[in-house]
Amino acid sequence: MKKVPDVFHIGERAVQARADVPDTWLKQTESFVRTEMPQQHRDFFENLPMLFLALLDRTGRPWCVPAFGAPGFVVSPAPDRLELRGTPVLGNELELERSTGASVGIVGIDLTNRRRNRMNGRVQHTSGGVMAIQVDQSFGNCPQYIQTRALSAVPNEPKRTSRQWANLRDPEVRRIIEASDIFFIASRAAGSLDGGSAGVDASHRGGRPGFLGINDDGTLSFPDFSGNRFFNTLGNIESDGRVSLFIPDFETGCAVLMTGRAAIDWDSARVASFQGAERIVDVVPDEIWHATAAIPVIASAPEPWPGLDSTGTWTDARLAALKTGGYRRFEIAAKRKESDNITSFFLKPADGGPIEPHVAGQFLPIRIQKDNGTILRSYTISQGPNGQYYRLSIKREEDGLASRLLHDHLDNGDIIEVGSPSGDFVLDDGTQPIVMLSGGVGITPMIAMLDAQVAAVKDGAPQREVYFIHATQNSATQAFTEELVALARQYDWLHLLIAYSAPLKGDKLGDTHDLEARLSIDALSKLLPFGGYQFYLCGPEMFMRSLYSGLREIGVDRSHIHYEFFGAGDLGESEEITPTVVLPERANIRFARSGVQAEWTHQSGTLLETAEAAGLKPNYNCRSGKCGACAIRLVSGAVHYQRNPVITPAKGEVLTCCAVPMSEDVQIDI
Predict the structure, then answer these.
(1) pTM listed for this prediction
(2) Span 234-253, pLDDT tens digits
(3) Which CATH class is domain 322-418?
(4) CATH architecture of 586-668
(5) Where are the coiled-coil regions (predicted)?
(6) Quick one: pLDDT band at residue 4, thresholds 50, 70, 90?
């Protein structure tokens, strides 16, 4: 096979130079681009049920459209030729050029196994429903950012594809764009398209749902993740700028098509929100179409490309831009007394922007600025996601600096700072009945999970039996009474059981509560019918230890018992991390800001405990790696976590509450 004389055109080479791609690397990779297809590429194309093509309309604009058929609708009669039987979707309606000599770009993708190959060429002839394409360039692509899907044909006779004018204010258009984890893009080089490297190109882009974003000014943006460094699409954008996007919805068979002009943002700070991305591409739409029956296939739920979770979305980027030092200003919109010692605080963004989503059961770090310093705490969000506000239901502790400040001094309109929701104490996604066991203020994650379960059932999710079992002293200390009673009356799958250990004179068994005793495993065995359950525990330490031990004694597997401590604590059977390093016998700990030094030994505990023993008062809250309040900059040295923290500290920081020195000298910024 002979090599293409000019593998890259001037636009591609300009982008490669801007991206500091070494000439030596380019010379090595030029051999990957061929003027003929290897046999594996020919076999690959012939077995595909779909292709995506880049074709020009009569004005020279590129369009990206799919072509579908039973495997065999694409044939390669020779290594330098590909024949396509049938008409590309909307090929006639858009008046796409398929005459002799017209440029065409093709990307073939097998969504079942993440294989994809590219081919650029020119139409040799079109006759008898067959478009024959002469190969100019043939090359493969890596499987990065491809979500696998199983595709099958629509069972009924496929409908004719139709299109209608649309704009970004159309709710269905926005839904398809903002939910997309895949799209295809067509681009072209400037000037006459005479084959070789100077032609049109079709390419695939993938990411987390939300990686393709709609901006307030009506433009679209997407991150350009690191790839093969050929820069075929970006080179065309540099050369000409005209592009087309095809954004499929594999659930409905609809798609959004658009043409417009693209530009590369090389210097944008926005790219920092997308791990693995190197620049941002912005598109100004010219035409937008909503097409129905554009994809005559149905697809299974996608299996994301490994590592996709960390790549970011535009929602993440916009929320991050609203924060300073990881926190954002929220206003107390309302306060509501839930019991004698628990008050709910309803928090709304002071900047008027959207709230960061959370999963029911997670906690929210908050920061309160005081004249004498900053107070950091974390509290469970006591309501399921609603997209409007967070509800924190906080118990007033006599020796609690933050809780007394919130209860006694802060009121509607006051500002507190809010971090990102975190934590993994959330409902499983199984079908077994759920038993929620809470004591005191431990009711807060349970009421949030129940709220989310109600919302899921309303949205059509299968009903799961829920046993909501709460223990408290009496009606004065019980929170959310009216809310729970109303839900129990409305849903027959919800079983509400309340235990009072010290009922008041006005409390009435069978009315205000169901049991007059401390909640025990014996009482629980009588309350629950025989069967398999997923248990969720939260409350005072002794309450949880007693129930956990009892559940294990009656044979409940520990994988079916989920729990959360509000402070430091463990029920004794969690998986320990096996140390893979040898810790020093002694270490010198230097606290850079205070100028204090301390010697650490195996008996000294964590860095937080070492600092406290040295007379320092560093920030902390949970003391178990769940809130991040103790995070501090690591100036030098290395540390080791003997137990995995729930959250990951920022780069260059350590969680002092669960870190120990791994080197003989450690310096931290306390």
Answers:
(1) 0.71
(2) 999 999 999 999 999 998 88
(3) mainly beta
(4) Roll (3.10)
(5) none
(6) very low
Architecture of domain 10-315: Roll (2.30)
1 pLDDT band (50/70/90 cuts)? very low
pLDDT score, position 160: 77
Separation between Cα atoms, residue 188 and residue 159, nearest integer Å = 31
Strands 494-500 and 466-472: parallel
State both tokens at 538. Answer: 């939260």
Structure tokens that stand for 200 in this block: 């049109």
Residue with tokens 């400040």, as numbered in its chain: 405
Span 474-523, pLDDT tens digits: 999 999 999 999 999 999 999 999 999 999 999 999 999 999 988 888 88
What is residue 233's three-state secondary structure?
A: helix
pLDDT higher than threshold 60 for residue 579: no
Long-range contacts of 487-492 (CB under 8 A, 24+ apart): 487/450, 487/454, 491/454, 491/457
Helices (H), 322-426: 401-408
Contact 60, 243 (CB under 8 A): no
Pick the CATH number of 434-564 from 3.40.50.1000, 3.30.70.360, 2.160.10.10, 3.40.50.80: 3.40.50.80
Distances (CA, A) of 39 to 48, 80, 317: 15, 11, 44
The residues facing 580 across adjacent strands are none
Which residue in 260, 258, 231 sits closest to 245, CA to CA?
258
Specify the residue for token string 């029911």: 360
pLDDT band, very low/low/confident/very high, at 310 (cuts 50, 70, 90): confident
Alpha helices in 576-641 (DSSP H): 607-613
The residues pairing with 366 across neighbouring beta strands, listed in sequence order, are 377, 418
State the residue for tokens 């107070």.
Answer: 375
Residues with Cβ within 8 Å of residue 121, at least 6 apart in sequence: 82, 103, 104, 106, 133, 134, 135, 136, 137, 195, 199
